[in-house]
Design brief:
By secondary structure, the protein is an alpha+beta fold. The protein contains 25 helices and 34 strands. It has a six-stranded antiparallel beta barrel. The chain has a four-stranded parallel beta sheet with strand order 2-1-7-8, with helices on both faces. The chain is globular and about 90 Å long. The N terminus and C terminus are likely disordered.
Length: 959
């Protein structure tokens, strides 16, 4: 302890990992300690409110709205021990340096530390955007004071979100469901997802056809001799494509002036073009040039990590945090695309070294951000230091996910300073006249890249999985006008319009960024919050809103439209930016928002209406709970209105005849007109409730149909519909319908046969019973732990004992019993490229890649677990490292002499020498390791033990 030192400085950071790295750069005159994130916050509940404030009318909010919006802060229970330690250390040193992150949240943490510790020694603010020795030493040499404007902006954001959440959420409790929450940003993010699902629900598909011709060039020549061309016009009128159809009707848009080909029209035209001459009518060639992408900011990093590596926003930021705290990259919460002069010089040097001088443009590239309301004054995310380490240099120091993310950042940074990709693009028009004298025009395009430039280092991915990669070439033969061609093949092609794609985390972050909503530090927490609140669920990468989200957003849109307006939410961010810049007073902003104001402060619509408090309480009695909890679907063939109702026990379908009084039972309870309700199985997405699916769910009254009574038990046999399709049930027995069966035609006898599964075939010579059953992977026979597949579903009911035993005996079983088959084969892990399976273990189901196992968490099922969730669970398990081995108890009595230790030579993996030229990374992580000048390194250093995950900054309730 530094009790006797007279020139000792205490440096306080957020996390132990960051503390460990920085302490190595500062030497013995410094004590570096972690605060473990935020040290105090507004009270979470009534129990957190100190006794002397419990009687205050504002105690519920934690903000004294009548006295300058003074906030009541309490030290978090799990931080008290660390605060005691920091307070003691503050008394033993001569100076305190607050080295929290350089954004608003970091500035607020520094201010809270001063307010909590109340030090008697000088306090200085130390800021840096990368954790390298030069950067840390420069920060120590050039400290500053705490920026009170940044603190005010962060405090105003926190209070704003508390007021919004604590005033609007009770409305949802009363009118939708208890324990729901509303938030200034989370509600808007949910609205974006709900609006996309509404578009999908309203979408009607359209069928259209065209013709794909394979055209051939006569004689030898350069380039390919055949190429594809698509029919684009007929008799001068354009052929209809997907963009020509109304998404809500599936009909051609009025005034489109296109020819809509159906199956017969396309096939007939193709037949009339058979054997006809084709002639080139136009050739247009243009230069192709593509500039590099800007370096990463927080949002683009999250987007590309999701596209290339299937990382969630949380996983990306968690991994980036570890890279930053251990000195590998610069600060990862930024919306600045700027690179320092030092970074530009480092990138240009490395490009010359790896790709040659021709790959470096004469002048350095400088980028300006296009982000609406950009406010973070940081550098772009890049490799740390004045000399960038290649991915090959750091491979043995990082975990798999850390390595892949570092490589992504390194490639993007290097590519941003490389030359343009150049080449040429060509557009060709070809005409043929059919036997019926119809003029058919075909089109073909080509692209040739003569110098890939930056594409050798980095190719950006697209949210559209069918989009062509930017480095893809399409070569055409050398064609000239009036050149004759022949058609080797003419194929009529069918197409269907597609509904708009659901949002992924990556595309939702992009949408929020374009709208000016949220900030770099909030994107990941927004994604997590809307899932934790039950408003959005993920299926693979797709984000699907729940019916609960429909009800909440419907209420907000009808009764508080301004609070969920995109421009309103962005304008709040603008106001906070002005506070951070010292151009606006936080108290004026909060007063106008909460109480209303006519002085121009705050949002004008909210202020003129009397503020938030008046807005949410004035018309509360006018909100009809039944109406906001009803989501209209369609009117069926019998004139009944079909709606989804959000009830106490979950969503359900209801059919009513217009003008007929609805059922009087409480929502979600049993009762109502027979046959007018059907439960919606868990996992059914809103856009999947088509008339056909609704008909299936309404098999009978209450969503089930009675087929008869089981003659052996007397219990009713019911036909039901679940998340994974129709099934029959009687008492405790259940059985899914076979692939060949339909719920509409299923007979009573067929249901009895299904309920006889698993069917006991008999007993083998060894006394073990043999069964036939149907599983996820089809019909099978089983004896003990041995399984064999049957080649048809019918054989489950007809296979004999002798036939089953013959199947089980071939191939011959080894002496040890075969392992039970996996519960589910999931596919390849996008991170490690190893096959993932879910198995049934001693303590329940778990997912494994053959090396690492992770138990399924509460609420997760083998059927519903996605490949992305499984990959993230295994990544977290690997990051924790192996479980500590239990120490065996020492046996009493005579001690054995210790056995001589057997020294085992440690395997040293041969390091592949990387090529001096680096191929473009299309999937985020290339197989070849990038190394400098192909120099073989010495034996790799022992991998550092997995570091503890950094405590996350407490996310604002509303975000």
């Amino acid at each position: 302890m530094p009790s006797n030192a007279r020139t000792t400085r205490l440096v306080i950071v957020e996390s132990p990992a960051k503390a460990k790295t920085i302490s190595g750069y500062l030497g013995p005159g410094y004590v570096v300690e972690a605060s473990f994130g935020h040290v105090r916050d507004l009270p979470r509940n009534a129990a957190d409110v100190p006794a002397k404030y419990k009687g205050e009318p504002w105690a519920r909010l934690g903000v004294d709205v009548d006295n300058g919006f003074h906030a009541l802060y309490v030290v978090s229970a799990d931080r008290k021990q660390q605060i005691t330690k920091l307070t003691r250390l503050a008394k033993e040193v001569d100076e305190i340096f607050l080295a929290t992150d350089e954004d608003r949240e970091g500035e607020a943490i520094a201010w809270h530390l001063v307010e909590t510790l109340k030090p008697k020694v000088p306090v200085k603010r130390m800021v840096f955007h990368e954790i390298t020795k030069p950067a840390i030493q420069a920060a120590v040499a050039n400290p500053r004071e705490i920026d009170r404007a940044l603190v005010d902006a962060q405090e105003a954001r926190r209070i704003l979100d508390r007021l919004y959440g604590y005033e609007v959420s009770p409305v949802l409790w009363k009118k939708v469901m208890p324990k729901l929450s509303a938030g200034r940003v989370q509600s808007v993010a949910t609205r974006i997802v709900v609006e996309r699902e509404r578009q999908r629900m309203a979408f009607r598909t359209a069928e259209y056809w065209d013709i794909l011709a394979t055209l051939a060039v006569a004689g030898p020549g350069e380039g390919p001799r055949t190429f594809p061309a698509t029919l684009i016009a007929l008799n001068g009128d354009r052929i209809a494509t997907g963009k020509d159809f109304e998404p809500t009707t599936g009909r051609v848009r009025p005034g489109a002036g296109v020819v809509h080909l159906d199956s017969g029209g396309a096939r007939g035209l193709a037949a009339r073009l058979e054997g006809r001459p084709f002639t080139v009518t136009r050739v247009e060639e243009k230069p192709y040039r593509r500039r590099p992408y800007a370096p990463f900011i927080t949002s683009t990093l999250q987007q590309e990590a999701a596209r290339k590596m299937r990382f969630s926003s949380q996983q990306t930021m968690r991994t980036a945090q570890r890279l930053y705290e251990n000195g590998y990259i610069t600060y990862m919460r930024t919306d600045s695309v700027n690179l320092s002069e030092t970074a530009i010089a480092a990138a240009r040097r490395q490009i010359v070294e790896l790709y040659g001088e021709r790959s470096v443009p004469p002048e350095p590239r400088r980028y300006t951000g296009k982000v609406k309301n950009a406010q973070e004054a940081h550098e772009a995310i890049r490799p740390a230091g004045d000399n960038f380490r290649t991915p090959g240099d750091v491979r043995n120091e990082l975990s798999t996910e850390e390595y892949r993310l570092y490589e992504l950042i390194w490639r993007r940074t290097i590519a941003s300073q490389m030359t343009d990709a150049v080449g040429s693009s060509v557009s060709v028009r070809i005409r043929a006249v059919s036997s019926a004298q119809e003029e058919a025009d075909f089109g073909a395009t080509g692209k040739t890249i003569t110098d890939p430039g930056f594409l050798r280092a980095y190719v950006e991915s697209s949210d559209d999985e069918n989009a062509e990669a930017e480095d893809a070439e399409r070569r055409l033969p050398n064609l000239v006008k009036d050149q004759p061609l022949t058609a080797d093949q003419l194929v009529a092609q069918e197409h269907h319009t597609q509904p708009p794609s659901r949002y992924t985390e990556a595309s939702l972050v992009k949408a929020l960024e374009e709208l000016g909503i949220g900030r770099p530090s909030t994107y990941a927490s927004i994604m997590q919050t809307i899932q934790d609140r039950g408003y959005v669920v993920k299926r693979g990468q797709a984000m699907i809103p729940s019916f609960l989200a429909f009800a909440v957003i419907g209420l907000m849109e009808r009764h508080y439209p301004r609070l969920i307006d995109y421009d309103f939410t962005a304008s709040m961010e603008n106001e906070l930016d002005e506070i951070a810049g010292g151009d606006h007073a936080a108290v004026d902003f909060l007063t106008a928002f909460y109480f209303g104001s006519a002085n121009g402060a705050g949002d004008q619509d909210i202020a003129r209406s009397g503020g938030l408090k008046k807005l949410v309480t004035e018309n509360l009695t006018e909100i009809d709970a039944r109406s906001v909890n009803s989501i209209p679907l369609f009117t069926d063939d019998e004139g009944r209105e079909v709606v989804v109702r959000v009830g106490k026990y979950g969503p359900y379908l209801q059919r009513t005849v217009p003008g007929q009084a609805p059922a009087t039972q409480a929502e979600g309870e049993e009762g109502g007109t027979p046959g007018d309700r059907a439960p919606i199985p868990e996992g059914v997405a809103p856009d999947e409730l088509t008339p056909e699916k609704v008909h299936e769910l309404f098999l009978g009254g209450g969503g089930e149909r009675k087929l008869g009574d089981d003659p052996s038990t007397g219990e009713p046999i019911l036909l039901k519909s679940g998340r994974f399709g129709p099934y029959v049930a009687s008492g405790e027995r259940k059985s899914s319908l076979l692939r060949s069966q339909s719920p509409d035609t299923l007979s009573f006898d067929e249901a009895l046969k299904l309920l006889s599964l698993p069917r006991r075939i008999g007993v083998g010579p060894d006394g073990v019973e043999v069964f036939a059953n149907n599983g996820r992977y089809g019909p099978y026979v089983k004896q003990g732990e041995e399984f064999r597949s049957l080649d048809s579903e019918e054989k489950m009911f007809t296979v004999t004992l002798d036939e089953a035993l013959a199947l089980l005996a071939a191939p011959k079983a080894r002496q040890r019993r075969a392992a039970a088959p996996p519960l589910r084969e999931m596919g390849v892990d996008p991170l490690t490229e190893k096959p993932l399976v879910i198995k049934d273990g001693r303590f329940g189901p778990y997912v494994t890649d053959g090396e690492t196992n992770a138990s399924l968490r509460r609420g997760q099922t083998p059927e519903a677990l996605t490949i992305e969730e499984a990959s993230e669970m295994l990544a977290e398990k690997r990051a924790k490292g192996p479980a500590p081995k239990k120490t065996a108890r020492k046996a009493t009595g005579a001690k054995k002499a210790p056995a001589a230790k057997k020294t085992t030579a440690k395997k040293t993996g041969a390091t592949k020498a990387g090529a001096s030229k680096v191929s473009a990374a299309k999937t985020g992580a290339t197989k070849a390791t990038v190394t400098k000048s192909a120099v073989t390194k010495s034996a790799p250093a022992k991998k550092a033990p997995a570091k503890k995950a950094t405590p996350r900054k407490a996310a604002a309730e509303a975000e």
